[in-house]
């Protein structure tokens, strides 16, 4: 089966924003929800550690393309939308663990909230710790408290956004283009954090579909 998928490739965070096909949107939505529900229900009912680890590492072998086809166009506040964003977050972290860990660490130093604690990364958080955090969050979807895993993902995004904003402020006088790039990244991370929080709330009310 592995031969049917593309090997992992690097991509920008906005690569899939333009993915628009000619398929029936209603059918795409139905397939996305059915596959997300079936996958999550089956694994959570019997969370075999080997299966969970294969799912966590799925994109390492197959890339993100297959999941993009399934879930990337789903509502951000839906089960497939939540799964897609968690997987995408993990892929982006693994593509740049050094840069991500730097922004996260910077965020922990200037954050005035409990988000660094909620995220659950050891401090100081280097590239290895941030990569492991992403894996822990993804495992939590399949064998832990789903809402807590989403809360951790939201906290991670908020802390990293704070770090990106802080660094952007430092760079604004000397590197305005880089500062703008970091500000844009912070805004996207903050939006993603809000989406994770909404999904966690819906899950707790048994309304995430």
Automatic annotation (TrEMBL):
Highest taxon in the source lineage: Bacteria
This protein's name: DNA-directed RNA polymerase subunit beta
Organism: Compostimonas suwonensis
């Amino acid at each position: 089966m592995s031969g049917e998928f593309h090997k992992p490739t690097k991509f920008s965070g906005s690569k899939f924003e333009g993915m628009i096909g000619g398929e029936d949107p209603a059918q795409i939505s139905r397939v996305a929800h059915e596959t997300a529900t079936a996958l999550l229900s089956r694994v959570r009912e019997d969370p075999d550690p080997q299966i969970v680890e294969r799912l966590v590492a799925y994109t390492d072998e197959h890339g993100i393309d297959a999941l993009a086809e399934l879930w990337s166009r789903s509502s951000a506040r839906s089960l497939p939308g939540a799964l897609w964003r968690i997987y995408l977050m993990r892929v982006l972290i693994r593509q740049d663990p050094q840069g991500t860990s730097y922004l996260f660490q910077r965020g922990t130093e200037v954050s005035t909230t409990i988000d660094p604690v909620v995220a659950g990364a050891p401090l100081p958080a280097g590239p290895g710790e941030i990569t492991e955090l992403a894996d822990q969050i993804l495992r939590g979807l399949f064998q832990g408290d789903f809402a807590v895993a989403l809360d951790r993902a939201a906290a991670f995004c908020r802390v990293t956004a704070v770090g990106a904003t802080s660094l952007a402020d430092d760079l604004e006088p000397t590197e305005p283009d880089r500062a703008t790039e970091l500000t844009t990244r912070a805004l996207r991370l903050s939006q993603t954090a809000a989406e994770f929080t909404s999904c966690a709330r819906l899950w707790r009310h048994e309304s995430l579909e």
